[in-house]
Amino acid sequence: MLSALLLAHSAQAAVVGRTVPATALTESRVAGQPEWLAYLARSKALMATDKATFFAEKPNGPAPVPTAYSAPAKTMPLSRDPAWYASAEARHVADVIVSFQTPAGGWSKSSPRDAGLRRPGQFYLLGRTPTPGDSNWGWVGTFDNDATTTEMAFLARVAAQAPGAEGDAYRKSFLRGLDYVFNAQFPTGGWPQVYPLMGGYHDAITYNDDAIGSITRLLADVARGQGDYAFVPPALRERARQAEARAIECILATQVRVEGRPTVWGQQHDPLTLAPVGARNYEPASLASAESAGMLVYLMSIESPSPQVVAAIEAGAAWFKASALRDKAWQRSAEGSALVDKPGAPPLWARYYSLSTGLPIFGDRDLSIHDDVSEISVERRNGYSWFNTGSQRALDEYRTWSARSKP
């Protein structure tokens, strides 16, 4: 059904809108709301401390700057045999992690954690060394690209293999990271992409790249207080449980309703209104398939889910079934990637779906939004993941969850 509608719309391709950038979280937006004003004051104070601490450092000679990008999973693996986390190699990675923790308690992203320890004057973020007058102070602490949550999980794993005093530094760093997570949580229950806040869409509730999913899963593990997280004090376990509960409320509240019917989630949502918002020029406010698949998988992992959570799962699964493109494939090409007919191909989902029509939409760098992917620039067509088959994981998990949950 959706494939037929898509074909009809493609025959009359059009610019269907323009991406509206997200609004930063500011004092003027939260005037008269003490809880929000306190949140912003805390964010500003932590950023000021981050800056002051860094600029007060006196490096001995030029500080080294890491030059190689690295995905967290490569230098902070979480799937090794437990004994490996007691090795000198794992301890070195943990030491590097501790050395790069910001004063606020978080970590930057995309930086290797298996190289040298951070030296005084070396910036927390890959490839940058700001000056005191530099206004571009961002990504210093973030949940993007699995940052912060991966560092914390790795520290907990190493600490579990160092139960004595030799593991105290790792446990202390983990607990500082946990405090960072608590500080960063919005009063409405979600988390920004970057904290302390840096403005723009980075201030939005961020489902992109499974940021909130990774935080909530970590909090659930901490709340259980088992295995790697048995060292966390009971009071902090309870705080983690409460933070996860507030996050679930936020996830349920941000599930988008179209004509009164619950569907899925946006890539990011305004922290105050909870409505989906745009991010980069080519990322419009929309329903986001990959991020929503991650949210459904997380909700299905909740033990003893409430009726509200069950209803959200059922609605999300129904949306994925109805929104799949059949007998289509995304064919990559240097001349211009394209959506092509391919009978028998696995179900395919567009990255973004219109909040009004429910049909796939595609953004370009000039802020224009199109209903036909072939109408956007070749550079954006080839440089972004406009379609995915990975959302099938949500339906696969749903089948298992449904069989387990229903008599």
List the helices and strands and how they pair.
Layout: H1 2-10, E1 15-18, H2 34-56, H3 72-75, H4 88-99, H5 149-160, H6 168-184, E2 205-206, H7 211-224, H8 234-254, E3 257-258, E4 261-262, E5 268-269, E6 287-288, H9 289-300, H10 307-323, E7 328-331, E8 338-341, E9 349-350, E10 352-353, E11 362-363, E12 368-370, H11 378-382, E13 387-388, H12 392-405
Antiparallel strand pairs: 1-12, 2-5, 3-4, 6-10, 7-8, 9-13, 11-12
Helix pairs in contact: 4-5, 5-6, 7-8, 9-10, 9-12, 10-12
Overview of the molecule:
With 407 residues, this protein is mainly α. Helix content is 39%, strand content 8%. The chain has twelve helices and 13 strands. The protein has helices at 2-10, 34-56, 72-75, 88-99, 149-160, 168-184, 211-224, 234-254, 289-300, 307-323, 378-382, 392-405; strands at residues 15-18, 205-206, 257-258, 261-262, 268-269, 287-288, 328-331, 338-341, 349-350, 352-353, 362-363, 368-370, 387-388. The strands form six sheets. Strands 1-12-11 form a three-stranded antiparallel beta sheet, with no helix packed on it. A hairpin with a 4-residue loop joins strand 11 and strand 12 (368-370). Helix 4 (88-99) packs across helix 5. The longest helix has 23 residues, at 34-56. It is globular. It starts with a helix and ends with a helix. The mean pLDDT is 93.
